[in-house]
Known about the structure:
The complex is a heterodimer. By secondary structure, chain A is mainly β. Helix content of chain A is 0%, strand content 57%. In chain A, strands 2, 4, 5, 6, 9, 10 and 11 form a 7-stranded mixed beta sheet that branches. In chain A, a hairpin with a 2-residue loop joins β5 and β6. Chain A is globular, with a radius of gyration of 13 Å. The model of chain A has no long low-confidence stretch (mean pLDDT 91). Chain B is an all-beta fold. Chain B contains no helices and 11 strands. Chain A binds chain B through residues 4, 31, 33, 35, 40-43, 45, 48, 50, 55-56, 90, 94, 96-107, and chain B through 4, 8, 30-31, 33, 35, 41-45, 48, 50, 87, 89, 91, 93, 95-104.
Amino acid sequence: xxxxxxxxxxxxxxMTNKKSLKCEQHLGHNAMYWYKQSAKKPLELMFxxxxxxxxxxxxxxxxxxxxxxxxxxxxxHLHTLQPEDSALYLCASSRGRYNSPLHFGNGTRLTVT
Amino acid sequence: GQxxxxxxxxxxxxGAIVQINCTYQTSGFNGLFWYQQHAGEAPTFLSYxxxxxxxxxxxxxxxxxxxxGYSYLLLKxxxxxxxxxxxxxxxxxxxxxxxxFGTGTRLKVLA
Lengths: 113, 111
């Protein structure tokens, strides 16, 4: 496989559940990102990891917990979410330079019931 | 501040030319990206501008004016498959390299 792969593609969870989103990149990039995409809103940057170190935490509620065990893998652990957290969660990677474009995965469509 | 503005929706006819504008007000500016996102799919990279002027890539061109905080994406010879959202994003160095996106412009191409 090439590019950025996210699993699962769709997830429905209750507010008391715990689940994790997984992202894997095969591009040799050294920066990985989580974005949240809601209808009629800009892509919201959640977390940035550069060389496996978290360098950005954009005031995200603690019910979202990222993990980056190595430069190819990124997780987003979810617990006690709220219905307003329902959105498309996009993982992306880049070379970590200012002129490097983001390469996105296809996203996980999350519905919190 | 960090604010990127682009129109919400545009409609154009197959074969026509359409220009999608984007204005930005960001500190630590390091370039302007355009992405295309079809419904239900991931955004894909279209273009990057860091210097003033026009960058041409086939049917798509992107323009930047740093002094005006303004960019546009120009799509020529529109095709039905160009119906998608077009996202404007800037690269900033506020803290670390990160990308701030606009809300996207949904383009509908009509036959």
